[in-house]
Each structure stands twice: as structure tokens, then as C-alpha cells.
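Example record

The entry below shows one chain as it appears in the dataset: sequence first, then C-alpha cells.
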Amino acid sequence: MKYWKQGFYDEPIDGSVEITEEHYQELLAGQSAGLIIAESKQGYPILVVYEATIEETRAQKLDELRLFDSSQTVNQFSINGVLGWLNKSTRVGLMNSINIEKEAGRSETSIWIGDTKFVLSIERAIDILQQLELYALACYDTTQRHTKAIQQLETKEEIEAYNFKTGYPGKLSFTG
């Protein structure tokens, strides 16, 4: 036998109720399956589906949006079919380096995507980096608009139904 009073006990305590070993095992199995052990009005342990609060639902949706925003669905472009991404610091660093190369009189530079090297004219490389920066800004703006929209929704149903995967610009594809 087990005893219940906001938790399981092997020995009775003040105000606890006795449950069978079979019921105890059912409760543990239900908990393992994602249900919550709660107390009935009569004080017996029962299994219930957890109902998230509106703020928990909102936080989950915002987490999903952040994951989407940092995924390859958003953060990816291609040069000659080679897929990759350059984060903000890499884009800024490359732009600075390429401008230094340009001032030094060089006509070509290289951009690496993963382990693939692309030799490009200075002008082409600058153009690609500028387009990438504008793309990243547009994606950021879209994510911020979705964040604001999610924060303003008033019901769990509206939050759950909200589709944040819309409005992002199409991925960029360049030839080298």
C-alpha cells in the first residue's frame, strides 16, 4: 500500500489517503506519459492533462519563433549552389577586409562558405555582402514584427494558431 498527500509515502501521515499499489503504478505510468498527478476534491490522486497558462503558451511560441529565426530556413544563402550562412560579425569583418583590399588596389578577394572558396571580384563580393546584410535586416524586422504580434495576442488559441513562418524574404542565391 501507498499513501498520498501531495506526494507519495510508504507510511501514513496526517491527512493522507491510502491507495493500492496498482493505482500507484497507474499514476506513475501516466506521469511518465506526460500527465500530471493532481488531487481530486475528495483528496485522492488522479491523472490530469496539464493546461499551460497563457504566458507559458506565449513563451513557448516565442521560443519556437527564435528557433525558426536562427534556423537554416532563414539563415541560409547560396553561391553557385553551395549553401551556407555568414553571421553578422563575419559579414562585418569581411566587408572591412574587402574594403582594405580594394584600397590596396586588389581586384579580387575570396569568400569561404564552409570548406568551399569562391574567388570573386571586389565589386561582386561587396555586392553579395550588401545584399546579405539587407536580407538579414529584413529577416530581423520580420521576426520583430512576429514577436510583437505574439505578445499582443489575447488568448491561448490565438497564440497557438499564430503562423510566424510567413513574411520572410526569399533566400538569396548568387553566382560567383
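Notes for this example: The chain has a mean pLDDT of 93. The longest strand covers residues 108-113.
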